[in-house]
UniProtKB/TrEMBL annotation, chain A:
Compositional bias ranges of the Basic residues kind: 13-24
Species of origin: Gadus morhua
Keywords tagged on the record: ATP-binding, Magnesium, Membrane, Metal-binding, Nucleotide-binding, Translocase, Transmembrane, Transmembrane helix
Protein name: Phospholipid-transporting ATPase
PANTHER family: PHOSPHOLIPID-TRANSPORTING ATPASE VA, PROBABLE PHOSPHOLIPID-TRANSPORTING ATPASE
Transmembrane regions listed in the UniProt entry: 77-95, 101-119, 295-320, 345-368, 1053-1073, 1142-1158, 1164-1185, 1192-1212, 1238-1256
Taxon lineage: Eukaryota, Metazoa, Chordata, Craniata, Vertebrata
TrEMBL record, chain B:
Example GO BP: phospholipid translocation
Protein name: Cell cycle control protein
Keyword flag Membrane: yes
Pfam families membership: CDC50
Length: 1466, 368
């Protein structure tokens, strides 16, 4: 729109053209404030050229609709073709029909499409209007204040005021913010899907405005770039001196968060905003079925041409035989001259194209569109795809690819927000070796879940089970009670949805629903916390040494302090944007220099300094030695209560910041975290009254029970990174004044940093216990985090600080040095405890994945998340199976150099695993489902290499052989590249599902893009073809609707081809009897309307409503989905089969009437009309055979079709004897209906014509039923018996096996996971996977269930005893060679750089297979991963299973060198 | 498209529920139709289910076929190719010369009926290899002229090309190739029971041989005053070039059978479906002896006015005498078709029975 409006402006204001030109030359845009020109007429406003904020995404206007729509429709080749034919009919030499009549079909088709387009455009118009009329505050000079305006009224140069949680209407330059730091926080979820808040800065020259920004005083001129679509780029100047950057620009579509108010000037508006410029229209997708169909349309064209050519030649020859003497019945040309046979043939060719045009199914295209719209309608209306909670349906945004849903082969899924709810819930923790199971919490969560699962169920007692412990006695507990009551009341009103909705309404930001926030504390732990708090308080109050606190209590307190402190959570309260509390005593930044450190830590300064510092200085002795002084009595519950009540008014006490009251009374604090698990931990701590109250760059304020608010001086934050897998904060403890390091991280990362317990058994026991609890958590699918602490002496700290500061200032290798510095600090930790957090999967995700997988879909998860999380979730949602071996491809940075060195000989490829395993499965590729017992985990960096041209094939080979693939840390671009790669290389149908904007590219690239209309904005939804409220709906969408849509459309298309061919062939046969003259015994009306009207409705009804298998069965038997995947309803040969059938039927329908009337005095139409009738009856009955379910709609449509034909025929034949020149069928049908012969024909012809198909279908039903047919059988019997578990595959297999016929279920069985306990079968072969440290291919494949001891043992044996090695020098060659059992040799092999592998050649015969990857890193630190595989013969545990599938049992063992952690799990 | 605003704007509002508000405003209708749960009959095509139908169909076809066959056996038909038969050979030869086209030639053909033709006997003339079903030929007519529209009488439709006007630009009535090529032989059938018996002219109805609707609706003479003769009505038009007589003199015996409503013309104008066809010439009048029961067996002769040239298209001319049944003329195809179909269905039914017998258990299993 922008160019248009500028154009308009140019025409209007010629005076100003010069300046405008200058603008263009400069390639910049100059924006003045509108208020300066408020008084001036629009003509003089310098901003008038810029497009306003009104958006218009409609394609048409009322006037332009007709021409534009027609123009667009003629882009479709078929339409041009049909118009051409219609026009051809106006040429007298070749015309076949009444010319006007020939126009009818094409006009009909065009108008139907036009109406559809009109409707879609109207929808766009409505949504445009909705957006254009959103409100916004715009400054008005006359009124001297901000007034409400519609979005569309905003102009470039307007000042607008934005409040918290408002959506930006245009691209705005930030001039003022209520934030003390002159920041404005925005959420860009709708643009890039990232939910974390981003900071935008006020333009520098306005930075120091103290008072509120007054637009009327503004007089700057902004010069900036022309509108462009680069979201990350903005350059400009304000007043020629102050630079503008992208940090100053707020983009349309973002949401203001945490900032009370911001004022800005509009720079780009409407269609010129970056967001709109980025908004390309969706790609026109063409479904696979349609592509396939087009091939057959092409064949139809060929057939048509052949038929025309045949007829034309025939006509030429026919004429030629009469020689010069033309018979009386040969009509001469109008000039009276003889037309030569050749020319006649040419004319006839064109005529035949008109007559046979029906063969190219003109109505097919429009019928398909109608059917698809109906299908979309029904999908849309499915109440099982409706989410009450958000009141959203499934949205079908693409109307033309419904059937693709039934043909998916690969699913690419995002993780966060798609599989998971992106809600981290604290589940349990262990502190100091004691496990707190948080049963009440678990019950609470279970209640949520049950509320979800059984919404109508009355369970009045459940609310009551919530603990209302008096000992808690705080408002926290009261809130719990309240919550439980409110949930109860919700339940009483009948639906979980309301409860959920209430929770949604209550939240404003991305993460935090009551489920996450309201952790029910474990009573035991709560007691201890309270006790610890009070004791601490006592100790502190009495200035006693901290070491008097019992060590377990100290650990508990420290544990919670760590939870609250060790994170990057930002605190805000719901009503107000984040309050920047300026109650600091002085502005402190994290320690920057040694001098700073010395200055800060000299006692004199401490005493003079902050309240917290002064008090903490009182306690200077180290309290690392923990005595046991349990002499202090724990306060009773009552006293706790009173103390808690008092806490607000309490003053004094060390570190208590009584005057620090950022929390407005009663208001609940909200935590915004980078990752939801951080928030979960903070909420968990808050449940124990250890709440994070405020966070400043240099100070964290924590409220502890009995102690009140404590200010922790934040010295350093060593952020999380994926290699360390932990984060640390260095704080000064206000109570002990010690420099304390709190570390939180993956258990694998923390546990090895724990200081070896020198003193006493207790520590060791704690360590041991914690580890076992960790394993337990992991087995439960929880994300485990370890919490540890470390106290530093000042000297130690100073020493470390020295190095750290050097690292910070280092120019070269800064990252590396900082990393090393962090490593130096995080040693010799003291383990406090561990937590188990649940990243809650969305409901039904594991079931959905399992069933989708059963349906033969390959599921890949592409996530930007870190590997540990991803793997964890993958286990939780059953994507990865503990039973399968996991290949982990992690290439470190060194890989790059290595990569360079090893590109040439791919035999020693840089990802050994890739090469080797790839070839391994190339061997077994003959049976594709055979080895799907592998899981592949690959991280983003490795993915980047794997996606390289030279390796992508190998990567695909590996990935294809894996049952599941997990790509972590992948960028949006990588996601789309992966999808594109798989799509293009494997020629498969891909579906991408995601919820965030980072999934958009992937969604767009895939054949079908599905968006989750969840929390993360609408970008994904807008890019998607289908938008689901929840992931689990994918199951029904694909398995049921996809299947139906596919099978319906496939059958309809085939039927169409058949129908048209059958009809046209009738006319073709007649050409043999009419001198190939292009004459037709079917009246022109019937010919034209046969497709369009008489036979159109039943197939539409069938195409919309037919259900080959019921929804229930389809979901119970996901295997039926393979029907669509393998395109079984519409294979190329089926087209030809249908053609053959069509020709047969047409022969019958032609020749039975022909012989019945042969030699009689019948006239052409009296003979042609029965043929038309017979053809119609045959075609309808044919549809009847193909129809699987008969509803009243089917009956009605068939009866209607027949009636319509007779009604039209009767009225047409009786209406006007002269109107329909040249044909004149007056009173034909009436006479026919009185003839018994007509009825006799109507009986015998369809019977004969349909006999073969009927016979075939009956045989098929009995002898070789397709899976869908079996599904229907089951369906039927299920309906009859009403229940019973009849859906077991074994049953199905057994029914088909005795026949000795290969049913599709044989292949179904293959991918099914079968579990054989590893211990039952001796390991007969192993493979060793040895990986250089640099490019590690590790296999952390063990089920998390195993305890470490267990694990160690098994790996040890693996390593030393049975590292059976079978090697082959060239992995490219697939034939296996030798099996050598010698550990020495394996060690030897490991030292070889390169890859060696052994691969089994013929999988069905070999029961053992080993994969070996051997290299040793130069450093000598070897890492050996042994794969142990047992290809077991099925030991009769499942007699029905064919032997092929029984070999897939893989047991994986892993041995890891001592310097590596046993497993990378977070 | 407008997703940048964080609102689900692309949502399709299918049903008109915009007015409905409340938390569950978008909840889909839970009707059987919307949820695709309409009660449905889902027949399974398996051997067991189709067998009853197959047997029924076989029996039905058999019954119909047999009864049709019996009916057909009672009909008689006699075809006589007179193109070069008897004295007509002379005419045939003379017509080969184009200059004799206008001359009338008479000849006689003799034949014997072995059996009596009982019931109504229809007299047809037949043509072979004459393509009345050519597209251009068929189109070359003007129904509006034939229906008696005055306007079209003088201005025939362009469909009649190239027989709209003659060389003198006089409009042709009836125009078009169909009318032009009208069959113009005429027949007189004589019966002589035995040689020496008196010769009886076989009386034929020459009217009522066309469709009632054709005679009364599709073909009308142009309107005329009472005073006008038919010739006057057709004044200003000329007859088709191949015609020997003008349209108003087609039937010299019956003045009402002239013009466009001449029944031979009407019959001819109903274009035959196949290149070998017959057209009704007359129906036996069964009012007088010896024809009250039909045509008796014996010797017959046909006096033919031989005008229609067929040699140009290698055609043949026939005379057909036939009795008809309730389902049309003597045509054994239909009963045979029924019998064959019955046989086929039966064979397939037996085959399916075998399958059912052998594998029936499996089908049952599947149902379990």
């Amino acid at each position: 729109m922008a160019p248009e409006s500028e154009e308009a402006g140019m025409v209007k204001v010629k005076v100003k053209t010069q300046k405008k030109k200058k603008n263009k030359e400069n390639k910049t845009r100059i924006v003045h404030a509108n208020i300066l020109y408020d008084n001036a007429k629009g003509e003089e406003n310098p901003n008038r050229h810029f497009s306003d904020n009104k958006i218009k995404t409609t394609k048409y206007t009322l006037l332009s609709f007709l021409p534009k729509n027609l123009f667009e429709q003629f882009h479709r080749f078929a339409n041009v073709y049909f118009v051409f034919i219609a026009l051809l009919n106006f040429v007298p030499v070749v015309n076949a029909f009444q010319p006007e009549l020939a126009l009818a079909p094409v006009v009909f088709i065009l108008s139907v499409t036009a109406i559809k387009d009109l409707w879609e455009d109207y929808r766009r118009h409505r949504s445009d209007t909705e957006i254009n009329h959103m409100d916004c505050l715009v400054y008005s000079r006359p009124e001297k204040r901000y007034l409400e305006r519609f979005w569309k009224q905003i102009r470039v140069g307007d000042f607008i005021r934005l409040r918290c949680n408002e959506i930006l209407p245009a691209d705005v330059l930030l001039l003022s913010s209520s934030d003390p730091d002159r920041l404005c926080h925005i959420e860009t979820a709708t643009l890039d899907g990232e939910t974390n808040l981003k900071q935008r800065q006020v333009v520098r020259s306005f930075f120091h405005l103290d008072c509120e920004f007054d637009p009327s005083k503004y007089n700057g001129v902004i010069e900036c770039e022309k509108p462009n679509n680069d979201l990350n780029r903005f350059r400009g100047y304000i007043g020629r001196k102050c630079g503008l950057y992208k940090e100053n620009l707020l983009l349309r579509g973002c949401t203001i968060r945490n900032t009370e108010e911001a004022v800005g000037i509009v720079i780009y508006a409407g269609h010129e905003t970056k967001a709109m410029l980025n908004n390309n229209g969706p790609r026109y997708k063409r479904s696979k079925l349609e592509r396939q169909m087009n091939v057959d349309v092409f064949w139809c064209v060929i057939i048509l041409l052949v038929m025309c050519l045949f007829t034309a030649i025939g006509h030429g020859l026919w004429l030629f035989q009469y020689g010069d003497k033309r018979p009386v019945f040969d009509v001469l040309s109008p000039e009276g001259a003889n037309v030569s046979p050749g020319l006649s043939a040419v004319y006839l060719f064109l005529t035949m194209i008109i007559v046979f045009q029906v063969l190219i199914p003109i109505s097919l295209f429009v019928s398909i569109e109608i059917v698809k719209i109906c299908q979309v309608f029904f999908i849309h209306q499915d109440s099982e795809l409706y989410d009450e909670e958000t009141d959203t349906h499934l949205q079908c945004r693409a109307l033309n690819i419904t059937e693709d849903l039934g043909q998916m082969q690969y699913i690419f899924s995002d993780k966060t927000g798609t599989l998971t709810e992106n809600k981290m819930v604290f589940r349990r923790c262990t502190v100091a070796g004691v496990e707190y199971s948080h049963d009440a919490n678990a019950r609470r969560l279970a209640m949520y879940q049950e509320l979800e699962s059984e919404e109508e169920a009355e369970c009045p007692s459940r609310g009551g089970t919530l603990p209302r412990r008096d000992s808690v006695g705080s408002h926290q507990s009261a809130r719990v009670v309240l919550r439980s009551q409110s949930t109860k009341s919700h339940r009483r009103t009948g639906s979980r949805a309301e409860a959920k909705r209430a929770s949604i309404l209550s939240k404003h930001t991305a993460f935090s629903s009551p489920m996450e926030k309201d952790i029910t504390p474990d009573p035991q732990l709560l007691d201890k916390v309270n006790e610890g708090g009070s004791q601490l308080n006592f100790i502190h109050f009495h200035r006693q040494p901290m070491s008097q606190l019992p060590s377990d209590l100290a650990d508990i307190i420290d544990f919670f302090v760590a939870l609250t402190v060790c994170n990057t959570v930002v605190v805000s309260s719901p009503d107000q944007p984040r309050q920047k509390v300026r109650m600091r005593f002085e502005l402190k930044s994290p320690v920057k220099t040694i001098e700073d450190f010395i200055k800060r830590f000299t006692p004199s300064r401490l005493t003079s300094g902050s309240n917290s510092s002064s008090t903490s200085s009182l306690v200077t002795n180290r309290s690392s030695t923990r005595g046991c002084s349990s002499a202090l009595s724990s306060p009773s519950a009552e006293s706790t209560l009173t103390k808690l009540d008092e806490e607000g008014s309490r003053l004094g006490g060390a570190g208590l910041l009584a005057d620090f009251s950022p929390v407005p009374g009663g208001a609940e604090l909200r935590y915004e975290a980078e990752s939801p698990d951080e928030a979960a931990l903070v909420y968990a701590a808050r449940a124990y009254k250890c709440s994070l109250v405020g966070r400043l760059p240099d100070q964290v304020t924590v409220e502890l029970p009995h102690l009140g608010k404590l200010g922790f001086e934040l010295l350093h934050t060593l952020g999380f990174d994926s290699t360390r897998k932990r984060m640390s904060v260095v704080v000064r403890h206000p109570l002990t004044d010690q420099i304390t390091v709190y570390t939180k991280g993956a258990d694998s990362a923390i546990m090895e940093l724990i200081k070896p317990p020198l003193t006493g058994k207790r520590q060791r026991k704690i360590l041991c216990k914690t580890q076992s609890y960790l394993n337990l958590y992991a087995a439960d699918g929880l994300r485990t985090l370890c919490i540890a602490k470390k106290t530093l002496s000042k000297e130690e700290y100073a020493c470390w600080l020295q190095g750290h500061l050097e690292a910070e200032t280092a120019i070269h290798g800064r990252e590396e040095r900082l990393f090393q510095s962090a490593l130096r600090l995080e040693t010799d930790l003291h383990l406090l405890g561990a937590t188990g957090i649940e990243d809650r999967l969305q409901d039904g995700v594991p079931e959905t994945i399992a069933s989708l997988r059963k349906a033969g879909l390959q599921i890949w998860v592409l996530t930007g998340d870190k590997q540990e999380t991803a793997v964890n979730i993958a286990y939780a949602c059953k994507l990865l199976d503990p039973e399968e071996e996991i290949l982990t491809l992690n290439a470190d940075s060194q890989v790059q150099s290595w990569y360079g060195a090893s590109t040439a000989p791919i035999g020693s490829g840089y990802i050994p695993g890739t090469v080797l395993v790839g070839s391994a499965h190339a061997a077994g590729a003959t049976t594709p489902f055979l080895v799907h017992r592998l899981g592949l985990v690959i991280d983003g960096r490795t993915l980047a290499y794997a996606l390289d041209k030279s390796l992508e094939d190998k990567f695909l080979e590996v990935a294809r052989s894996c049952r599941s693939v997990l790509c972590c840390r992948s960028t949006p671009l990588q996601k789309s590249t992966v999808v594109k790669l798989v799509r293009n290389k494997l020629k498969v149908m891909t579906l991408a599902i995601g919820d965030g904007a980072n999934d958009v590219s992937m969604i767009q690239v895939a054949d079908v893009g599905v968006g989750i209309s969840g929390q993360e904005g609408m970008q994904a939804v807008m890019a998607s073809d289908f938008a689901l409220p929840r992931f689990q709906y994918l199951q029904k969408l694909l398995l049921v609707h996809g299947h139906w849509c596919y099978s319906r459309l496939a059958n309809m298309i085939l039927y169409f081809f058949y129908k048209n061919a059958m009809f046209v062939a009738l006319i073709f046969w007649f050409q043999f009897y009419c001198g190939f003259s292009g004459s037709s015994m079917v009246d022109q009306w019937y010919l034209v309307f046969f497709n369009l009207m008489f036979s159109a409705f039943p197939q539409l009804v069938t195409g919309t409503l037919d259900k080959d298998v019921s929804a229930h069965t389809l979901q119970a038997l996901p295997q039926l989905y393979m029907n669509g995947q393998n395109s079984e309803e519409y294979k190329p040969y089926m087209f030809w089969m249908n053609m053959m059938d069509a020709f047969y039927q047409s022969l019958v329908c032609f020749f039975i009437p022909y012989f019945a009337y042969a030699g009689s005095d019948v006239d052409l139409f009296t003979w042609g009309t029965p043929i038309t009738t017979l053809a119609l009856i045959t075609i309808l009955l044919h549809l009847g055979i193909e129809t699987k379910t008969w509803t009243w709609m089917n009956w009605a449509s068939i009866v209607f079709s027949a009636c319509l034909f007779f009604a039209v025929a009767l009225s047409y034949n009786s209406s006007c004897p002269t109107c329909y020149a040249p044909s004149n069928p007056y009173w034909t049908i009436q006479r026919l209906l009185l003839e018994p012969r007509f009825y006799l024909l109507c009986l015998v012809t369809p019977v004969t014509a349909l006999l073969p198909r009927y016979f075939y279908r009956a045989c098929q039903g009995s002898l070789f039923p397709s899976p869908t047919k079996v599904g229907r059988q089951l369906d039927r019997s299920w309906r009859q018996t009403h229940g019973g578990n009849i859906f077991s595959l074994g049953n199905l297999a057994s029914t088909s096996d005795p026949l000795g016929l290969k049913t599709a279920f044989a292949s179904f069985n293959n991918p099914l996971p079968r579990y054989f306990p590893p211990k039952d079968h001796p390991q007969s072969a192993h493979s060793t996977l040895t990986i250089p440290k640099d490019a590690a291919v590790s296999a952390p494949s063990d089920p998390p269930l195993r305890t470490s001891e267990d694990h160690d043992q098994s790996t040890a044996t693996d390593d030393t005893q049975s590292c059976l090695e079978v090697t082959k020098e060239l992995p490219g060659v697939t034939e296996g060679s030798r099996v050598v059992e010698s550990p020495e040799r394996s060690a030897l092999q490991r030292s070889d750089i390169g890859v060696s592998g052994w691969v089994s050649s013929t999988p069905p015969l070999l029961q053992k297979e080993a994969v070996e990857l051997g290299t040793a890193p130069p450093g000598g630190r070897s890492r050996c991963v042994a794969y142990t595989r047992n290809w077991e013969q099925n030991q009769g545990s499942d007699p029905e299973t064919p032997p092929v599938e029984s070999r897939t049992r893989t047991q994986t063992k892993q041995s890891i060198a001592a310097d590596y952690s046993e497993e990378d799990r977070l | 498209m407008q997703g940048l605003l964080g609102k689900p704007l692309g949502r399709v509002h299918w049903s008109n529920k915009a007015a409905k508000t409340g938390p569950l405003a978008h909840r889909p209708d839970n009707s059987a139709f919307m949820q695709q749960r309409l009660p449905a009959w889902s027949p399974m095509l398996t051997t067991s289910t189709v067998l009853p139908f197959m047997y029924c169909m076989a029996v039905l076809c058999l019954v119909v076929g047999v009864s049709l066959l019996i009916t057909v056996q009672g009909t008689q038909e006699m075809k006589l190719d007179y193109t070069e038969a008897g004295t007509c050979n002379n005419c045939f030869q003379s017509l080969k010369n184009v200059s004799n086209a206008g001359k009338s030639c008479s000849c006689r053909v003799v034949f014997t009926l072995e059996h009596e033709f009982k019931g109504d006997v229809f007299f047809y003339y037949g043509l072979q290899n004459f393509h009345q079903n050519l597209r251009k030929y068929m189109d070359s007519r003007d129904d509006a002229q034939m229906v008696g529209r005055k306007q079209n009488l003088k201005n025939p439709s362009s469909y009649c090309e190239p027989y709209i006007r003659d060389e003198k630009d006089v409009p042709i009535a009836p125009c078009g190739a169909v009318a032009n090529s009208m069959f113009n032989d005429s027949f007189a059938l004589q019966y002589q029971g035995q040689p020496g018996d008196p010769i009886n002219t076989v009386p034929l109805y020459r009217k009522g041989i066309a469709w009632y609707t054709d005679e009364n609706v599709k073909f009308r003479n142009p309107p005329k005053n009472k005073s006008q003769t038919l010739a006057q009505v057709f004044e200003g038009t000329t007859s088709p070039p191949y015609w020997q007589k003008p349209v108003y003199l087609l039937d010299p015996l019956d003045a009402t059978n002239n013009g466009f409503i001449n029944e031979d013309l009407i019959v001819w104008m109903r274009e035959a479906a196949f290149p070998n066809f017959k057209k009704l010439y007359g129906v036996l009048v069964r009012t007088q002896e010896p024809f009250t029961n039909g045509l008796p067996a014996g010797n017959y002769s046909i006096d033919i006015v031989y005008n229609f040239p067929v040699q140009y298209f290698k055609g043949r001319k026939q005379v057909v005498l036939s009795t008809v049944t309730w389902f049309g003329g003597q045509n054994r195809f239909l009963p045979i078709a029924y019998l064959v179909t019955s046989g086929l269905v039966f064979i397939i039914a037996i085959f399916l029975t075998v399958i059912w017998w052998k594998f029936g258990k499996d089908a049952k299993n599947m149902n379990e």
